[in-house]
Design a protein that fits this description.
Rossmann fold, 6 strands, six-stranded mixed sheet, 8 helices, binds 2-phosphoglyceric acid, alpha/beta, about 40% helix
Length: about 250
């Protein structure tokens, strides 16, 4: 028996539009992003992939995206579970910086190392920095684990146990699960699901607002690669993410 898992990156955010490194900074969706989120919900309804339960990060752009998608799919009533473990990768001292200026200043090799290498985190973001989450009430309970920077490997470490112990049991119980999260937290999950190597994951980019569907078996592994419900739009969106900063 297989059950459906839908992965959905939030729609375009205000800082995606401005080309700024975002991470844990809690920015909202743009008008375009809200449209992408609603379209994602329409795609779910049109293809009959209707979620029974929603998992989101605790960041507003993912929550807004889920709300708009579920409204469009007429599934606003499903139970919701939120966790910081689905948050975007914490971007350390890069949070708030312009991607094009950072590329210019540090060069392509360093820029790509910070953006897409598996195990090199950006420099730490001090708690006194204006883009720090040190005093953000939503992280009060996780103080010992609140990061000041993360590489993708750190995201895998905080996310995969949550996938295995919390999300997967819902799939095993026969539910269709929607996970609304972020470019890099979803890259971590896709890496795990598809067994992508530490090197090859650098080439994977997740477009905004495009539902990606997996069939998950009893053993927790997918029956194959994920399928975007709108493959052409997803390919164009992924290429745009890859080109950021250029
Ligand atoms: O800034 C960020 O938090 C992420 C996602 O928008 O950017 P990138 O794709 O460069 O990792």
């Amino acid at each position: 028996m297989t059950n459906k898992l839908i992965l959905l990156r939030h729609g375009q955010s205000e800082w995606n539009e401005k080309n700024l490194f975002t991470g844990w900074v809690d920015v909202r969706l743009t008008d375009q992003g809200r449209g992408e989120a609603a379209r994602a919900g329409e795609l779910l309804a049109e293809s009959g992939v209707l979620p029974d339960v929603l998992y989101t990060s605790v960041l507003s752009r993912a929550i807004q995206t889920a709300n708009l998608a579920l409204e469009a799919a007429d599934r606003m009533w499903i139970p919701v579970v939120r966790s910081w473990r689905l948050n975007e990768r914490h971007y350390g001292a890069l949070q708030g910086l312009d991607k094009a200026e950072t590329l210019q200043k540090y060069g392509e090799t360093q820029f790509m190392e910070w953006r897409r290498s598996y195990d090199t985190p950006p420099p730490v973001l001090e708690d006194s920095n204006e883009w720090s989450q040190a005093n953000d009430a939503r992280y009060e309970g996780i103080d010992g684990e609140r990061p000041q920077t993360e590489c993708l490997e750190d995201v895998v470490t905080r996310l995969i146990p949550y996938w295995e112990n919390v999300i997967l049991p819902d799939l095993r119980a026969g539910k269709t699960v929607l996970v609304t999260a972020h470019g890099n937290s979803l890259r971590a999950l896709v890496k795990h699901l598809e067994g992508i190597s530490d090197e090859d994951i650098a080439g994977l980019n997740i477009p905004t607002g495009m539902p990606l569907v997996y069939e998950i078996g009893e053993d927790g592994t997918p029956s194959g690669a994920g399928t975007y419900l709108d493959p052409e739009a997803a390919a164009a969106g992924a290429a745009a993410v890859a080109a950021q900063g250029k």
